[in-house]
């Protein structure tokens, strides 16, 4: 069963998706996505894409849903799922040509219990029908009316799982899932919120500064990074979403200035 049929069967909302552009004749705005694309950099509004690039089946079309983008991290043992945490995605700002590029996320709690209940319902239905195992994730949008639309299911550990780590390893819990166990030791940290942001190269880079402790995923020594590619991940924690966001962007600017200086840009 493919994802759209599964969601339809369980009355779970999702953006209408098709390989046929003619299916969107009555839609004012829709997206085009690359099959098996990752990171959101391949997604754009159909009207903005070079027509020469959509002559084959490497792309598909999807209804554009305006709203706030979230993701959920969960554990699955093939039968049941356990929600670990929710993240709100940062709005992309680094490239005007990549309006859907994944740049980062901040841990959060959904304002309404019905939304959390719906996400729990979705991950349990998907897990049971598709036999998901381990750490997984889903991306979803909440529109202005409060409706949830499932955009993607990631049957692998998502990049945001690190934001939900506690004294009990989520990766150990991931392994336990393959034995049929859902860990009861993973407790959310409500005292702090956590976030990360990815810094992307704006130019070809050959030199890098000394990295602060709040930077991870750094290039190996001697590595060159081409423009448009990720350079590093920047992390922050604070007491509120705005504090985390502001700290992330201050650190991003600091890294960017250091990289520009050392590369004489």
Explain this structure to me?
The structure is a single chain. This protein has 265 residues and is an alpha+beta fold. It folds into two domains: 3-177, 2-Layer Sandwich (D-amino Acid Aminotransferase, Chain A, domain 1), CATH 3.30.470.20; 193-262. It is 21% helix and 29% strand. An eight-stranded antiparallel β-sheet has the order 9-8-5-6-7-10-12-11. The longest helix is centred in the C-terminal third of the chain and has 22 residues, at 241-262. It is globular and about 55 Å long.
The CATH superfamily name of the largest domain is: ATP-grasp fold, B domain
Got a strand count?
12
CATH class of the largest domain: Alpha Beta
Q: What name is given to the CATH topology of the largest domain?
A: D-amino Acid Aminotransferase, Chain A, domain 1
Q: Helix-strand pattern, N to C?
A: HEEEEEEEHEEHEEEH
Distance between the ends: 51 Å
Shape: globular
Radius of gyration: 20 Å
């Amino acid at each position: 069963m493919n994802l759209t049929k599964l969601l339809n069967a369980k009355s779970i909302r999702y953006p209408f998706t098709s390989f046929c552009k003619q299916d969107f004749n009555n839609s004012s705005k829709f997206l085009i996505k690359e099959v098996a694309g990752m990171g959101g950099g391949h997604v754009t509004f159909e009207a903005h894409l070079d027509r020469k690039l959509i002559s084959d089946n490497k792309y598909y079309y999807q209804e554009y849903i305006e709203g706030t983008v979230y993701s959920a991290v969960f554990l699955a043992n093939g039968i049941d799922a356990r929600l670990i945490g929710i993240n709100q995605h940062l709005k992309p700002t680094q490239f005007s040509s990549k309006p859907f590029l994944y740049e980062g996320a901040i841990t959060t709690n959904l304002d309404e219990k019905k939304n959390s209940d719906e996400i729990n319902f979705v991950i349990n239905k998907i897990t049971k029908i598709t036999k998901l195992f381990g750490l997984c994730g889903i991306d979803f949008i909440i529109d202005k009316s409060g409706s949830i639309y499932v955009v993607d299911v990631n049957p692998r550990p998502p990049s945001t799982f690190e934001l939900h780590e506690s004294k009990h390893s989520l990766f150990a819990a991931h392994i336990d899932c393959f034995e049929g166990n859902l860990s009861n030791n993973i407790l959310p940290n409500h005292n702090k919120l956590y976030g990360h942001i990815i810094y992307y190269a704006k130019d070809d880079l050959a030199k890098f500064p000394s990295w602060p402790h709040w930077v991870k995923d750094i290039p190996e020594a001697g590595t060159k990074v081409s423009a448009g590619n990720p350079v590093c991940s920047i992390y922050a924690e604070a007491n509120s979403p705005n504090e985390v966001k502001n700290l992330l962007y201050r650190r991003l600017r600091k890294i960017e200035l250091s990289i520009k200086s050392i590369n004489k840009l």
